[in-house]
Structures are given as C-alpha cells and as structure tokens.
Amino acid sequence: MNFILNGRIVELDAATVRARVLPSLPDSIRTHWVEIDGRRWPPKQAFRIATGLIDEPFISHFALRVFQRLGFATSSIPGEIPQSAKPVVPSPTTPHTDEDALEAFRRLDLFLASNVLTPTLAALEAKLNGISKAAAADLGQTTGFDEDLVDAALVVRERVGMLDTLIHAGVITQVLPMVLEDDEVVTKRPSLGAGNDPGRVFDLETTHRVAEFKLSSWKGQDGARQRALFADVVGLSLDETDRRRQVFVVGALPVAFLTTSKRNAVKTLSKGPLRIRDAPGLTETMTVSEFTAAANIEVIDLRAMMPCLR
User: Fold this and answer.
1) Within this chain, do residues 129 and 187 fall inside the same structural domain, yes or no?
2) 212 pairs with which residues across the strands?
3) How many separate domains does the chain show?
4) Is the domain of 115 the same as that of 241?
5) DSSP labels for 34-74?
6) Final residue of a structural domain among 105, 136, 157
7) Is 47 within the bounds of a domain?
8) What's the angle, vertex CA 256, arms to CA 255 and CA 260, rounded to 5?
9) 27, 58 in Cβ contact below 8 A?
10) 208-226 in b/e burial notation, b at 16+ Cβ within 10 A?
C-alpha cells in the first residue's frame, strides 16, 4: 500500500514490516501498540523502523492506521469505532496520551510555521477549481494536507476545544472587579461559557450595566466577526432599562469597525435573528457606526485592562 506523510509518498507492505521490524527489540509499551507475529511494539517505533522515516514528525494514531490497513492487530484509537476489517482490540476508554498531544502540537506547529494558512488555502482553492480526479490525487500528495495533519488537528482540538470558553471565562472574571463600581451588584449569573440560555441575554448584567465580551483576534479580513460583533451591539440596544450598554473587544480593528465603519447596518445584520433585524431605531440607510452611536453603546478595548490580550 501507498500512503502520504508530510507530502511524501511512502510504499509499505506487511512483508516489509516483518522483515525490518522483527530483528529489532521492542521498547516498552506505554499506551498504544501494534502486534507483529505475536510480539507487541510501540507503533511509532515499529513505524520508523519499517519505513526508515526516522526524523519525520507524525503521531501514533497515523502509524496505527497504517498498520491496521496492512492487517496487523493494534490497540484502538481514542474516539474511533473499530471497523470489522480492522483487527483492532477495543479499548474505548483509552484517552489521548500526553505524548500523542505533544506530538500533535509539534506537527501542527511545524506545518503552520511554514505555511501562512489564509493565502495557502486561497492558492489551494484556485488549484482545486475545475480539477479532475487524477489531478486531485496528484495535488493531494504535494499540499501537506495529509491524513496525519488532520489527525494531529483533531487531537489538538479535542485537547483544547474549550480554549475559547476558558479565555472568555477568565477575562470576565478578571475584568469584573476592575469595572464594577462600589455600589454596583451583579444581578444575574454572568454568561462565562458558550450556550443559548434565554434567561441570560447578556454576558454581564448588573444594576448599572449590560455588557457583551467579544474576544476574537481580528486580522483585517473579518466579515464574520463583524457580523457577530454588530449583532451583539444591536442586542445590547434592546435593553429597555437606563443601564449603560457596553461591548468589550480586543484591539483597534473592532473598535474602529463599531465607531467609524460606513458599512450598512441592515445588510450587516442580514444573517442575524429577526429580533435584531427589527431593532428600534434601525433604518435602511444607517451605518454601523451611526447605529452604535445612536444606541449609546460604549466600545471598550480590553487591552487597557489586560495587556496580555491580543
């Protein structure tokens, strides 16, 4: 069988695996293993010996899949449902090991350090437009977007999938004592995480203010972020009390968008919920900055309070 690793085509078969791996002694097994003629090996060790790819970065899951396709029994891969064609010993409770996660981080970092993702994707999209099956197969061998990269990204996502929520919760927790006034009290549980709780309309609601926290890092091409941020601004405008309306952002770009943008407000909300598209005071000709000012929304750059944000 052939497979692609880091843009390189590698050919491997079961007989070659046996011929190259069996004369060596296996290292101790930690979590994952591949069984070759009755002896178990750490999959990364066996993979490197079998392929000769001593310095190529990859994670153990990739090696396990290669061995499974060659007909060898292996430990299971966390989160995967074993298929009948794979001689896999079920182990559904086995987590991703720290070694897996560290290797996955290294694999992603190596790829991202040598590829600026947005222009790389744009170039790849152009190449894929109108491509044939054979040409797509050839292109897939040279892009670097191989199965191991996807596997590494999945491991990292599983490890840090709640990272945005953690940052959101941490920022609100740290900023709260900086903004609360002496006679001000939080009146509802702050919305520290993701979710749609109809009882908690705003991220922060106190006796003195309603506030939203948008912590995305803007890069200059931020259409989706603009729509989401402005939707929150319009949502703040729907508060019928006389409390202060505040939106906390990170950096000069979102501040400038809300305070100077000439983008049409209604068009910016075209994909938003109906309740905000029909907000009082919103007209067909109004710009984003005009609505933000008319609704008395305070736009606050959080970097003044937390310089670590970026």
Assistant:
1) no
2) 247
3) 2
4) no
5) EEETTEEE-HHHHHHHHH--SS----HHHHHHHHHHTT-EE
6) 157
7) yes
8) 130
9) no
10) bbbbbbbbbebeeebeebb
Q: For residue 218, what are its two tokens?
A: 């803007």
Token pair in block for residue 258: 């809300």
* Amino acid, res. 293: A
Q: What is this structure's pTM?
A: 0.62
Residues 6 or more apart whose CB falls under 8 angstroms from that of 115 comprise 144
Domain boundary among 122, 157, 192: 157
- Residue-range definition of the domain harbouring residue 93: 2-157
Q: Does residue 86 sit in the same domain as residue 172?
A: no
pLDDT tens, residue by residue, 240-260: 999 999 999 999 999 999 999
Q: 155-208 pLDDT, tens per residue?
A: 788 777 778 888 889 999 999 999 999 999 999 989 987 665 667 889 999 999
Full DSSP string of 257-310:
HHHH--SBHHHHTTTS-HHHHT-TT--TT-BHHHHHHHTTEEEEEGGGT-TT--
